[in-house]
Amino acid sequence: MRFIAILLSLLLMPSLSSAQEQVGKIKVLTTFSILQDMAKNVGGDKVEVETIVPPGQDVHSYQLSPDDIKRAASAHILIANGLGFESWLDKLVQSSGFSGKLVIASTNAMWIPLGKDDTKSTMFKQKGNNYDPHAWQNLNNGRVYVANIVKGFAEADPDNEKLYNQNGIVYRKKMMELDQSAAAQFRKIPDDRRKMATFHDSMGYFARAYRIKYLTLKGPDSSDDISAQDTAQFIAVIRQENVGAIFAESQEDLSIMRQVASESGKKLSGRIYSDTLGRKKNIDDSYLNIYRHNVNAVLAAMGVSVN
Asked: Which of 13, 25, 143, 279 is the most buried (most CB within 10 A)?
């Protein structure tokens, strides 16, 4: 009799699919806004996607709130970048008691190793990670991220596997087309003009994808301290290399890079989007839109006319 009762309780235990039927949509929580956009593109109307770090805020310096812990506790799926990008990820999972499916989006992407002399990479190395975590800045890696999200959604909700796969195919094709267009444009630029500089090392994958010489003041962790000597050395290298494409990042204060550009005898080329989306519809509110913006901004700074 006891065996029958246990068997009945197991049969009656709701699966994720039946839970979805009850609440209408799968609850997905992502760690930052770029992953949120990817998840929405894959999941469509079958998922409800929220993010921990809102658009415009810095993931590296973000402090978890009680509401973040609460949302993680009730999520069916949690999507994170990995590679040490979210220094607070372990705390989020442990404090919330998260028991759903964890998707690490950067799994199987092509990672860039941090240099042995990279004084900019201490936080990531301390966490046992020796790779630049900003892998989504290469669209080929973006396609890997989407494949991982598709796989995670399909495993959690097999009833809608076909839809997730179809959405993933369409989305990844858009990434491939944008990448091919960008590569064709950058190939037109001579090597001596194909150089750029940013505040922190967030665009290394982008630079490698299009063979751009890339200079940064700080490493992959934007919260690392910098000294006046660091800034002076950075300015000297920009002068020496005659770098014309000098950018601030959307989540960072403009003042430092404006100073760097001025003291290098250059003008600030504008802002690019590295770790976050913005809130301007059809401009910076999606992964593809910010990537397209970055491509066009860098091309323009290197003297290429962009339609």
From this structure: 143
Kind and range of the H or E element at 245? strand 245-249
pLDDT score for 148: 98
Residue 6 lies in a domain: no
Whole-model pTM over 0.85: yes
Q: Residues with Cβ < 8 Å from 45, sequence gap 6 or more?
A: 25
Whether residues 196 and 165 share a domain: the answer is: no
Torsion sign across C-alpha atoms 263, 264, 269, 275: negative
What is the three-class DSSP state of 211? coil
Q: In Å, how far from its chain's centre is CA 269?
A: 22
Give the tens place of pLDDT for each residue, 235-288. 999 999 999 999 999 877 788 899 999 999 999 999 999 999 987 776 788 999
d(CA 232, CA 260): 9
- What pLDDT, on a 0 to 100 scale, did the predictor assign at position 126? 42
For residue 128, give the amino acid letter. G
Are 54 and 69 found together in one domain? yes
**Domain membership flag for residue 134:** yes
Contact 28, 75 (CB under 8 A): yes
Same domain, 67 and 156: yes
Number of domains in the chain: 2
DSSP sequence for 66-86: HHHHHHHHH-SEEEE--TTS-
Where a domain ends, among 121, 156, 180?
180
Q: Determine the Cα angle at 214 with ends 211 and 215, to 5°.
A: 170
Tokens in use for 115?
């240099």
Q: Report how far residue 106's alpha carbon sits from residue 81's, in angstroms, rounded to the nearest whole number.
A: 6
Report the alpha-carbon distance of residue 118 to residue 204 in Å, rounded.
13
Which residues constitute the domain of residue 264?
Answer: 187-301
CA–CA distance, 20 with 161 (Å, rounded to integer) = 14
Reduce the DSSP state of residue 204 to 3 states and report it: helix
What's the full length of the chain, in residues? 307
